[in-house]
Amino acid sequence: MPKHAIETPALAALPIAGSSELFPVRRVYCIGRNYAAHAIEMGHDPDREPPFFFQKNPNNLDPSGEFPYPPHSSDVHHEAELAVMLKSGGTDIPVAEAEGHVFGYAAALDMTRRDLQGAQKKLGRPWEIGKAFERSAPVGAIHEVGETGLLNEGVISLSVNGEPRQQGDLNQMIWKVPEMISYLSAYFELAGGDVILSGTPAGVGPVQRGDVMEVAVTGLSGLTVKVV
User: What is the pLDDT of residues 53-77, one digit of tens each?
Assistant: First the structure.
């Protein structure tokens, strides 16, 4: 078997609650504007239009509990999200079968260089410079679906330094988890190790160095992240 020409990069892998095993990450899909109130606060019509997705990189997912404030931005925002981890995949997955591919869930953040994202939007360019930077997706421990059941409702909230900023319910998602899986599978071949960040409720806003963010999702371990 041929050797690799350089040292093999480390595989991104995440902790699983109550287990010594790790969840290997293959791809990260992120849905945009999936809560009506957040769509409104971002200046968009919340009517149910076809979903759209962008991607982060597997090693953007970070369970360390620290978020280094990124360079080239003075307006970095928090976005609390439910992360959905897949154990299997395929193409053209029917909605009715989609949740059978879920391995588990975790509380997560989609940190965003909002000023850079906004500049890219105005130019009609991709968002990755605002979304897919290093350690831009803090994530908590994964809870397997056998423990949690299917998470189709429950509170999702975020506070900064103890002050509430975001609160919603998973049942407010415009596109539900099975629909996201099914839609993505029509355009990509999904597989075990894929992660879907399922959108954020209203209340996104800026953070500064020294802030402590706390994300809570019903049925999951909380996620506490310090901005450093």
Answer: 999 999 999 999 999 999 999 999 9
